[in-house]
């Protein structure tokens, strides 16, 4: 309970600082409040506030995140195409939130299959999950390898942008998505979604001085 109180007080102090000391425009209050609410939601989801000094959330608390992560990746690939055993097994670990074990299996499998795009993408996502949503150098490298294998596939940069956004790195997310949009064909089915996301980030950045 103490962790929750501290988090709420800190969020309130941040809002007051932005609204009063930094003179955040009134029209930006809702956007900045949404960012803080998103952060508190992430704290509840990842931080296990009821466990003092706990560095990671229990596996059962983040298993749903692993499930969604795997399903989101599957949606971008042919569902009837057979998947290698190491990817199937690593997905089973990822679905339960055991991202470290998933990443270990993927590394071993990719040693023998270095041109497996979905494997590199899965590794990047597993490494981000293992680091509680932050894009580590290892995760960035995995996404880069996936992009190099098939530059026309938007998956690597799309999920990299999602990871940056979830970690609060708004400008980094915008940069990744803007670069993806720039090199996407005019008739690409993902262009409209990217344009909408970038516009939303632009609004956040414009209304929040600390993001500029």
Structure description:
The chain is mainly alpha-helical and 212 residues long. The chain has two domains: 2-46; 60-211, Serine Threonine Protein Phosphatase 5, Tetratricopeptide repeat (Alpha Horseshoe), CATH 1.25.40. The protein is 70% helix and 0% strand. The chain has ten helices and no strands. The protein has helices at 2-21, 29-46, 59-74, 85-95, 99-112, 117-130, 137-149, 155-166, 170-183, 191-207. The model is unreliable at 1-64 (pLDDT under 50).
List keywords for this structure.
212 residues; 2 domains; 10 helices; 70% helix; 0% strand; globular
Instruction: Count the DSSP helices.
Output: 10
Number of strands: 0
What level of helicity do the residues show? over 70%
CATH topology of the largest domain: Serine Threonine Protein Phosphatase 5, Tetratricopeptide repeat
Just give the CATH class of the largest domain. Answer: Mainly Alpha
Shape: globular
- First and last CA, distance: 34 Å
Please describe the topology of this protein:
Elements (H helix, E strand, L loop, with lengths): L1 H20 L7 H18 L12 H16 L10 H11 L3 H14 L4 H14 L6 H13 L5 H12 L3 H14 L7 H17 L5
Helix pairs in contact: 1-2, 3-4, 3-6, 4-5, 5-6, 6-7, 6-8, 7-8, 8-9, 9-10
């Amino acid at each position: 309970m103490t962790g929750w109180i501290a988090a709420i007080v800190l969020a309130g102090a941040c809002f007051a600082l932005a609204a009063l000391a930094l003179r955040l425009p009134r029209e930006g209050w809702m956007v900045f409040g949404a960012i803080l609410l998103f952060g508190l939601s992430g704290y509840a989801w990842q931080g296990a506030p009821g466990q003092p000094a706990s560095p990671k959330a229990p596996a059962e608390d983040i298993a749903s995140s692993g499930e969604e992560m795997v399903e989101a990746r599957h949606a971008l690939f042919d569902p009837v195409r057979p998947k290698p055993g190491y990817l199937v097994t690593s997905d089973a670990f990822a679905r339960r939130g055991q991202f470290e074990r998933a990443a270990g299996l993927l590394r071993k499998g990719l040693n023998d299959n270095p041109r497996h795009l979905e494997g590199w993408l899965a590794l990047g996502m597993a490494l981000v999950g293992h680091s509680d949503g932050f894009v580590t150098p290892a995760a960035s490298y995995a996404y880069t390898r996936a992009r190099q294998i098939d530059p026309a596939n938007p998956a690597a940069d799309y999920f990299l942008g999602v990871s940056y956004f979830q970690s609060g790195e708004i400008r980094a997310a915008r940069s990744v998505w803007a670069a993806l949009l720039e090199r996407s064909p005019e008739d690409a089915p993902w262009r409209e979604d990217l344009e909408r996301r970038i516009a939303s980030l632009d609004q956040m950045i414009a209304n929040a001085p600390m993001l500029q």
